[in-house]
Design goal:
The structure is a single chain. The protein is of the alpha+beta class. The chain has two domains: 13-179 and 308-406, FAD/NAD(P)-binding domain (3-Layer(bba) Sandwich), CATH 3.50.50; 186-306. The chain has ten helices and 20 strands. The protein has helices at residues 26-37, 70-80, 106-119, 167-171, 197-204, 210-219, 264-288, 358-365, 368-388, 397-406; strands at 13-22, 42-45, 62-63, 84-86, 102-104, 123-125, 129-136, 139-147, 150-161, 176-178, 186-187, 189-193, 238-242, 249-253, 296-300, 305-306, 310-312, 322-324, 334-335, 347-349. Strands 1, 2, 6, 7, 8, 9 and 20 form a seven-stranded mixed sheet that branches. Helix 1 (26-37) runs parallel beside helix 9 (368-388) and helix 9 packs across helix 10 (397-406). The model is unreliable at 91-97 (pLDDT under 50). Bound molecules: flavin-adenine dinucleotide. The site of flavin-adenine dinucleotide has 36 residues, from helix 1, strand 3, strand 7, strand 16 and helix 9.
């Protein structure tokens, strides 16, 4: 590879804050709210012009019931607005093996996230890409950002990396593992509207039949479709679910393996391949499934959905314990060390870049309800660290647990 040398350059400090949250997906949003409610000064940076990450950007809008801690608060808020509800055909649940899945309206969610950040006086900078970390010794001091204003710095006492891909961890050179081979697939999600779901279900019996019918069509040579069609590595392949509105469906357009979610060339290829397949699938549905005759693609993901990329290696802590329990009715939990990277201090992570063992990560911890709750835990831990003048690694976990319980997260202790 060729290189160029860029001359040393002074860049302006755009902001100096107590807590900086990097990335405005569900985890970053939750971390910002949780820390602000504990009195911390919080600033959140996001590359897109709206919040939600994959939960809005990638049209991932079906969830296991959100019934514990911060995820319950979101469920209640969206339900009041008529923007959250159970699936219309729960038997078709493709991914949660018997869990009754629910769905929400991503546009209402986007709107509510900004409203909630404003209610808590969280500072927000959109359209801003994080491109580097500022580290002195083993302490992270800030990040380098780029936006229409050029290159700038943001300094902070504590940073939560909620970029999903652990970009800040990567730039700060803290240890992580990376799914560079794309063992967990990417998927392009899209919504179709104008669907007569009753008519479709009348023909096929259940949405889960769609991938079988598509495969038979491929075998007969009627359509070319090269992506994974059935459930693999926790990803449904080709599948359909009804959303909160009767004529709208959310579609998984196949599993693309072998591409890295943090390699720009792989991502470019993935966008092209998966968008093409989404159009093939939409056309096939219109021609082959009753009820789709008048349907159209309503929207496609802003970007291809990446399930897994980088995840931190957890730090061995003096004080550790459960700080995230995604669901009331399950015993699955995550401990604080899963949010604390090794080596680099003043840094926490939340969301899909936390440490979790593969079996737990695939089925549980990369989903939206746990990402919201790891965000809540990371935000509260950051606020405690700031208040006590200690690093996140030195936070007293029993204190954090008490604060989480007071804030409504049942930890099963
Ligand atoms: C196809 C697919 C289907 C899924 N199905 C389900 C499902 O049915 N139910 C379920 O509960 N979960 C599902 N998931 C998982 C779930 O959607 C995600 O794991 C979860 O939303 C991740 O949230 P997050 O906040 O950790 O990360 P992300 O959503 O990735 O958010 C990261 C945020 O950081 C921003 N960002 C990233 N890098 C930078 C940077 N360098 N500078 C500035 N900003 C940056 C991004 O724009 C984004 O807003 C699915 C995921 C995929 C991809």
């Amino acid at each position: 590879m060729d290189y160029v040398t860029i001359p040393e350059k002074r860049i302006p400090v755009a902001k100096n804050t107590d807590l900086l949250v990097c990335g405005g997906g569900v985890a970053g949003f939750a971390a910002a709210i949780a820390a602000a409610r504990m009195g911390a000064e919080v600033f959140l940076v996001e590359r897109y012009g709206f919040l939600g990450g994959e939960a809005t950007t990638s049209l991932v809008i079906t969830v296991p019931p959100m019934n514990n801690g911060f995820n319950k608060e979101i469920c209640d808020r969206l339900t009041k607005l008529g923007a959250y509800g159970p699936m219309r055909y729960p038997a078709a649940d493709p991914m949660a093996q018997g869990i009754r899945m629910e769905a929400y309206d991503p546009e209402v969610f986007k709107h509510e996230m900004v409203a909630m950040l404003r209610e808590e006086n969280v500072g927000l900078l959109l359209h801003t890409y994080i491109v580097d970390a500022i580290v002195e010794g083993n302490v992270i001091k800030g990040i380098v950002i780029e936006n229409k204003g050029g290159r700038q710095a943001i300094l902070a006492n504590v940073i939560v990396d909620a970029t999903g891909d652990a970009d800040v961890v990567h730039f700060a050179k803290a240890p992580y593992v990376n799914d560079a081979e794309g063992a967990i697939p990417m998927t392009m999600m899209f919504n179709m509207t104008g669907v007569d779901s009753d008519k479709a279900i009348g023909q096929i019996g259940n949405w889960s039949r769609v991938h079988d019918l598509l495969r038979e069509s491929v075998e007969r040579g009627e359509v070319e479709f090269d992506l994974g069609m059935t459930m693999k590595a926790g990803a449904p392949g080709v599948s359909i679910e009804n959303l909160v509105y009767p004529d709208e469906v959310n579609i998984w357009s196949g599993n693309l393996f072998g591409r890295s979610g943090v390699d720009p060339e792989d991502l470019t290829e993935a966008e092209i391949i998966t968008r093409e397949h989404a159009y093939i699938l939409a056309g096939w549905l219109k021609e082959n499934i009753h009820g789709f005759e008048n349907a159209r693609i309503e929207m496609m993901s802003t970007q291809v959905g990446v399930r897994r990329s980088r995840q931190i290696k957890p730090r061995r802590l003096d004080s550790d314990g459960v700080v995230c329990k995604p669901y009331c009715n399950s015993t699955v939990t995550l401990t604080y060390s899963s949010l604390v990277p090794e080596v680099v201090d003043s840094l926490l992570v939340a969301g899909r870049c936390v440490h979790a063992k593969e079996d737990k990560f695939g089925g549980i911890f990369r989903l939206i309800p746990p990402c919201l709750n790891t965000g809540q835990a990371a935000g509260m831990a950051a606020a405690i660290a700031l208040e006590n003048g200690v690093t996140p690694a030195a936070v007293d976990v029993p204190t954090l647990q008490q604060d989480l319980i007071r804030a409504g997260q049942e930890l099963g202790l």
